[in-house]
């Protein structure tokens, strides 16, 4: 039987002194190899014919027969020395496989050299496939090559990384010892590939927009500020790709998208990291209804790609990602939960009294009905939305880039997608009236002057672009990290980021 992961090696709870001794032993082994002209770091290539998973998927030879000739390479994660023969396991990109080492079947001195290898060393093996008496498909080694020396011992088992933060700080170790983590990031890659495939099939083209911007706009968020020395100019890491992408639509690229990193100088928690990955997409001649259909397609198809079903479990909650998703206006959602109809109020003052009755803490004593509605939604409704739900028709006060709803100008054609109590997508019928857009930017600038660090700046280039004419356009942004969390049942965003933001250890 295959050795369990927790048998990686014997070095688990090491004192600093013991660790220092182990490190020195490994360095001494390296020095001896180098002195003998066998420097493992001198290797540049190795001919790999098969991955472990491919070998395990082959038709098994009968007991006692030789199967295919193979050449494999990977990290040695277990070893059992038994006199003139030994077993070990190699870990490669597709899994792990057992290898049988027999002194008589190897060149002179190779078996003795193998016995000096350490857990964690990168090893190449050439030999043939066979099945052990216990029924395990294995490789019978005929050639063994040390390809790279590991100078640090691996933890005995995944749980040996007792500090949860150590998993994120040393993701390279986490990936080695925990196959579930490797599987997570393989699924993340498949999700992104599926997104690209679906977008390409829909006639979208992928573009790239600047990460460094002279204006922080396109979203309500606090930016990171940096300085360009040559231009002697403060610049901002982008908080959104929205405005540049809409400029592409103005230019005639009618269906565009970008998958890329955004940066927001804000808080960190289970759902937030200062840098994160999104897809933003814009399509001419459609509206937020078209973006709802696109969101349903991407979430359901990506779930099928990595889970084989649209029926998933997320943190003990059963979620059905089968389209269509529910659609509820923000005002109706708040009314259903709280009993308060904010847009049924005759005035903003009456709405503020209703907010007080809900014990809603509102700092702005002049807050409008729209802002109060949004505050009430955040406080009372968001956590209740377990099944996929489009919350539609947002107040104009909190939607500076969205087109007004013709039948209700105090609202906008905007939605956010909520699943399992969290937001996963934000979309608009894009505002294309340059006069209205400048007016909303001006209002945002006034809010920023009052101390709102998340209010947008006026983007003059975008205002100019709108004056050339933006066709009716639907746009959407989806948080890919959150999507991966949902589809892999990850509790925190750190689990789906290879290298999450961490405070340095002093």
Shape: elongated
- The rounded Rg comes to 29 Å
Mean pLDDT: 93
**Helix segment count?**
14
Query: In the CATH hierarchy, what is the architecture of the largest domain at level 2?
Result: 2-Layer Sandwich
CATH H-tier superfamily of the largest domain: Bira Bifunctional Protein, Domain 2
Q: Which CATH class of the largest domain is shown?
A: Alpha Beta
What structural class do you assign from the helix and strand content? Answer: alpha+beta
Describe the structure.
By secondary structure, the protein is an alpha+beta fold. The protein has two domains: 5-167, OB fold (Dihydrolipoamide Acetyltransferase, E2P) (Beta Barrel), CATH 2.40.50.140; 178-325 and 387-496, BirA Bifunctional Protein, domain 2 (2-Layer Sandwich). Helix content is 32%, strand content 26%. It contains 14 helices and 19 strands. Strands 6, 10, 11, 14, 15, 16, 17, 18 and 19 form a nine-stranded mixed beta sheet that branches. The chain has a five-stranded mixed beta barrel with strand order 1-2-3-5-4. Strands 7-9-8 form a three-stranded antiparallel beta sheet, with no helix packed on it. Helix 5 crosses helix 6 and helix 6 crosses helix 8.
Topology summary:
Layout: H1 16-35, H2 52-56, E1 69-82, E2 85-92, E3 95-102, H3 110-114, E4 122-131, E5 137-148, H4 164-169, H5 171-177, H6 179-201, E6 205-206, E7 212-213, E8 225-228, E9 233-237, H7 242-250, E10 255-263, E11 275-284, H8 288-307, E12 311-314, E13 317-320, E14 326-329, H9 330-338, H10 348-357, H11 369-381, E15 389-395, E16 404-405, E17 408-419, E18 422-429, H12 434-449, H13 460-468, E19 473-479, H14 480-488
Parallel strand pairs: 3-5, 6-10, 14-15
Antiparallel strand pairs: 1-2, 1-4, 2-3, 4-5, 7-9, 8-9, 10-11, 11-19, 12-13, 15-17, 16-17, 17-18, 18-19
